[in-house]
Amino acid sequence: MIDLASQIVAVPDFPKPGILFRDIAPLLRRHFGPTITAMGDQLSTGEWSGIDVVVGIESRGFVLGAALADRHGKAFALVRKQGKLPPPVVAQAYQLEYGTGVLEMQSGSGRALLVDDVLATGGTLLASAGLCEQAGYTVDAMLVLIDLKFVPDFAWKDVRARSVVRY
C-alpha cells in the first residue's frame, strides 16, 4: 500500500507568507489511480449507490471529482469561481483561509457528493454545500483528499467531511 501523505510536498510561505501549502501535484503525478481509489473507498458501496452526481470544486476538486464520477458511473457538476460559467447560475460569497471570493453553480438536481482537495478553514466547503442546495442538489456526502484539521470534525447539516490524509 502506498503512503499517499509521503507524496504530498509542504511548501512554506505559498501563496502568502505564513501559509504552509500542501502540494498534491507530485502525488497525482506518481499515484493518481491509487489516490482516486483511496478517496472512493471513503464511501461504502451503499453510499455510492445513492449518489447521483459528483460536484467538483474549482480547481483541483475538478480533477479529483471528475475521476471519481467516471470511476463510479456518476454525473459530474462544477462549482466555479464567479464569472466562469454561463448563466443562469446561483452564487454564494465565501471566506477562505487567505481571502474572500464568490462561487457559482448551474442548477440541477439529485443527491450529491461534494469533492475538493483540501479542507482548511471550511469556508469553501460551507459555501459550496450551500450553493449546491440553492442550485437544487441535496448534499449527501463531502470528501476531501487532505484535512488540515483546523476545524476538527467539520460537518455541514450533519454531513461530515471525510478525508484520506490528515495533518
Detailed description of the structure:
The chain has 167 residues and is α/β, with parallel strands linked by helices. It has one domain (39-166): Rossmann fold. Helix content is 29%, strand content 39%. It is built from 4 helices and 10 strands. The strands form 2 sheets. It has an 8-stranded mixed β-sheet, sandwiched between helices. A hairpin with a 2-residue loop joins strand 9 (155-156) and strand 10 (159-166).
Count, helices: 4
Tell me which CATH architecture applies here: 3-Layer(aba) Sandwich
Element string (H = helix, E = strand) = EEHHEHEEEEHEEE
Helix content: 25-40%
For the largest beta sheet, what order do the strands appear in spatially? 5-6-4-3-7-8-10-9
Gross morphology is globular
CATH top level? Answer: Alpha Beta
Structural class: alpha/beta
User: Main β-sheet: number of strands, strand sense, barrel status?
Assistant: 8 strands, mixed
Could you give the count of β-strands?
10
Low-pLDDT runs: none
The third-level CATH topology is Rossmann fold
Determine the N-to-C terminus distance.
19 Å
Give the rounded overall mean pLDDT: 95
Oligomerization: single chain
Q: Radius of gyration over alpha carbons? A: 15 Å
Could you say how many structural domains there are in total?
A: 1
Q: Beta-strand percentage?
A: 35-45%
